[in-house]
Amino acid sequence: MPTVPENGSAGRSSETARARAAIYRLLARVFSGKPSCELLKGLKDSDMLEALAAFEVVLEPEFIAGDEKQQAAELAVEFTRLFLGPGPHIAPYESVFIRGEGEEKPRLWGKATLEVADFYAEAGLAQAEGETPDHLGLEFEAVAALAREEAEQWESGAVDEAARLRELQRRFCSEHLLRWVPEFSRAVAGSTRSGFYRNMAVLAENNVRMHCGGDT
Amino acid sequence: MRSISRRDFLKLGAASTAVLAVESQFNVIAYAAEQLIEGGRSVTRASGLPRSFLPSTCMQCPAGCGIIGYVEESRVVKIGGNTKHLSNQGALCGRGQAGINAIYDPERLLSPMKRVGPRGSDSWEQISWDQAMEEVGGSLASLKSRNPRQLLFLTDDIGDDHLGQRFTHAFGSPNIIASIGDFNANKLVADELTWGASGDMPDVANSKYILIFGANPLESNPQYLGLSRRLVQGIRDNQAKVVVFDTRLTNTSALSNELHFVNPGSLGLLILTLANVIMQEGLYKRTFIEKWTNVTPEQLAQHLAQYTPERAEAEAGVEASVIRTVATEFATTAPATTFTDQVLSNHSSGVQNERAAMLLSIITGNIDNRGGLCLPREQELAQPEPVPAPPPPSALSNPPAYPLASEQTIAGTFAQIQSREEQVGVLISHNCNPAYSNPDLGLVEDVLKDETLIPYHVAITPFLTETAALADIILPETTYLEDSDIIVKPSPELVPYVSLRQPVVPPLKEARPFFTIATELAAIIKGGMEQYFSFKRVDEYLSARIANIGGLQAAGALDYLKQHGVWYDPKSQPDYQAFKQNGFSTPSGRMEVNSERIAALGSPALPTYEPVTFMSQLGEQDYVLTIFDTAIQSDWKTGNCMWLDEILHRNPVWMNPATAEELGVEDGDEVKLTRPNNVGEAKARSVTSTVYLTEGIHPKVIAMANGVGHTAYGRIAQAEEIPYREPPDVLQNPNTEMIWWGHEEPGGNGVNPKQIVPVTLDPVGGGEAWGDMVVTVAKV
Fold first, then answer.
1. In Å, how far is B740's CA from the nearest CA of chain A?
2. Are B34 and A126 a contacting pair at CB < 8 A?
3. CA B374 to CA A172: how far, in whole Å?
4. Domain end marker among B301, B334, B368
């Protein structure tokens, strides 16, 4: 199967960047909070199901047939249990998965958090107050924001700036996302009681692998 | 995985765009031209890292010490004492330093939660702040229009929750109540009756003779470091003699010149005997008694004559000669002071006991003088205008059965709710944990679980405490290191001061300060309530609180506090014996040794020893259980602090070797403490722990530490060790794998002895009689 060409026209590049932005943004949405009925409906759309299949994500038939309102209610509890607690849960923060230099063990708001914060500052990303910089949803959103900006740069003809932004995203992906999203995905698979979050974690992992592999 | 076609990639992009088009916006990060501005930071020598620091006020215990929060790379890395603070003067205890554990507790609640399933089933759904405020605000608005007096707001200390009080009063309810009552409730009532002020302040740094009755200021006291520091000053700089009467060898008695064990419950008798000796020997100050009290020396001498040293030797277990010597020394050494605390006041005769202790200072003229027993001095704060008028009292805020008790002292609230003395519509629990702290925890749990008694429970808390676990909705509040308030406490130096709490770091994630929560709720509830919360920013509120303090205004007002953390008039000296100009704040203007108010309740008007009922019923197998506070845990509050739990996590039963021999047990044996059948109701009949043999306890007393044995409040408080795994697939607190005491048997995190304590109130004061707890002890 052919890979996505690295040096397409500006139009192609812009299209790629917009697609990347949308996928990352979807992932950001999924891992930032409980799902809405609309989100679940959208994920069951036939075009979406086809596209997901290409990413090796196959949603269960029972899930597709199920009532979104009830699923949203159930997944709200599952999301809370999985990612927020109270009690043992998977803290979706890079610094919890990655031990920083000089750190004996990973911790919340660790070295990795600061590296991510530094990256945002360097990349010109401004973050709203409240969330810790290395939250999975925020890291995904950061790539999406840069990809959107990249697309606009291609479209306005600022190809050097666009290429720089594309490179920034790839760097962030390989320096940060790739080093913990696969572990995160495994952790979700090992703890979740729902196929939904297992599938979404696989999607996240595959998307990150492809992005870093230079495919997208 | 295999690689993917451009077509499929774009398809997922398009499908994702379609999904997101119908989703609400959730931008939290955006590409912006501005860069972060660096610079202006200091660097520490030790780590080489940029470090900033801010003064603030500790809230790990009631003392309110001045702290400095050190911040490196947006993380609090150290908490130290503020040397400028008048109370702790640079010192800081372990609890204060362990505040870092609280703010970074991995199980902190950082988004609003709504329960799923029945109360207490521990299944929660994360909800947005918008939804949470809509639901809570909606319920409160509806209650306000129906019956605002059905709001019950529970908090630990009303003095520290001025905003909660403003909220409750503005809502139209009188029911802001200290969830458990003050631990010194009966003492506060006795002080108020006698000299018209709640509490006292022994001027120990300037005393020559300090007589301590069951107080333990080196480990636990409402002023903690402020007073323990001054006690050591008195001993070291002033060569004060310290004599302690207690049932247990505490850190304070270890530093004393003499420790005398008294029989449990008989301190009141001992004190009145000391007073009797002083009167009989003619060592009293006649002029002071005649001028400043409402009794004559003759009246007193006649009343006290019943308390002979020989009787005290027989009943209290202290030799008559010791009593005569101590009484003589106390009366002939000036200045001298008494020092009392919970062990004296937490009895069904607590108010009488405390009045007796004050009598010793009164007859020797040691009242509000340098080195004597002083009136509390606390900076008065302004009430921001408009001030909500306190609604007329209810049966909960001022129980008819206890007319001398107040919202701050009454301990019987949950029993009142259960007997439906007042219907509650909405309960807000804020900064309190009655499901851990109160007597008869079964009653508290039953009430909190019963939706007919508590139809709606809103917990405003950073942590899932035993109480929050029984809530309907949880609003995640910031910890004290992330919010602001003006704090005042009785000054150990007798010069009033103002302390500022300010955010050392910004709130983590979605946590919100109580100020924000209260203000937003008021705006939703409306009905006139919003006018009391029209502050645009918290600074506006803080500034209004200190508007009445001229000296602070001149020094720079809030800006001064932000820079220094504390303010007091540097030229001010203690205004000893101001009563000589103004009199006392009692109905008669004198110290009311002869109290008509207490007589009206059927209790003797003159300070009188009332034997605690258990004393006459104490069987061979019966022992008095003392639950004592330590310098390590603050009741419920610090249970999730890893560093503190490592020091104090289990509470063996202190037992005298003579007692152990009687019972046939040895050090380390497991014993069961059982509440006798005939004494009240409580969650459990018995608790089990191991024996700690020590000569440092009265043979008829056994003791257990407070502050451990949590059944909620996260894994750290419950000593649940989580083995570390690499890579971590569950949130790893770097500390939780070090919970070595999780393995200890039995009960690595101890037991909560309060679960076997029934609600027993002083009939006069309304405070819990913790010290009246009798148990039988048996080897398991």
1. 17
2. yes
3. 65
4. B368
Chain B residues with CB-CB distance to A88 below 8 A: 715, 722, 730-731
Residue B487 within any structural domain of the chain: no
- The total number of structural domains that make up chain B: 2
> Amino acid identity of B244?
V
Assign B279 to helix, strand or coil. Answer: helix
ipTM of predicted assembly, 2 dp:
0.85
Contact A33, A79 (CB under 8 A): yes
pLDDT 10s digits, B649-676: 999 999 999 999 999 999 999 999 998 7
Write the DSSP symbol of residue B204. Answer: G
User: B304 versus B748: which is more confidently predicted?
Assistant: B304
* B707 assigned to some structural domain: yes
Q: Which of B367, B386, B473, B394 is nearest to B147 (CA)?
A: B394
List chain A residues with CB under 8 Å of B33.
124
What is the per-residue pLDDT for B71?
A: 87
User: Helix B514-525 crosses helix B538-545 at what angle (to 10 degrees)?
Assistant: 100
What pTM, to 2 d.p., does this model score?
Answer: 0.81
Residues of B in contact with A131 (CB under 8 A): 28, 509
Q: Is residue B417 part of a domain?
A: no
Task: List the structure tokens of B220.
Answer: 């636990």
If you count residue pairs, one on A and one on B, with CB atoms under 8 Å apart, how many are there?
Answer: 229
Complete domains list, chain A, with CATH: 10-212 (1.10.3480.10)
CATH number at B684 reads 2.40.40.20
Count the alpha carbons within 13 Å of B653 in the hemisphere toward its beta carbon.
Answer: 34
Using the 3D structure, point to which of B323, B353, B368 is the last residue of a domain. B368
Question: 10 Å Cβ neighbour count for B300?
Answer: 24
Q: Is A16 on the interface with B (CB under 8 A)?
A: yes
Range of B319's domain?
A: 207-368
Which residues in chain B touch residue A77, judged by CB atoms under 8 angstroms apart? 116, 123-125
Quick: pLDDT tens for B583-630.
999 999 999 999 999 999 999 999 999 988 766 677 888 999 999 999
CATH number for the domain that contains residue B271: 3.40.228.10
Taking CA–CA distances from B724, the nearest residue in chain A reads A105
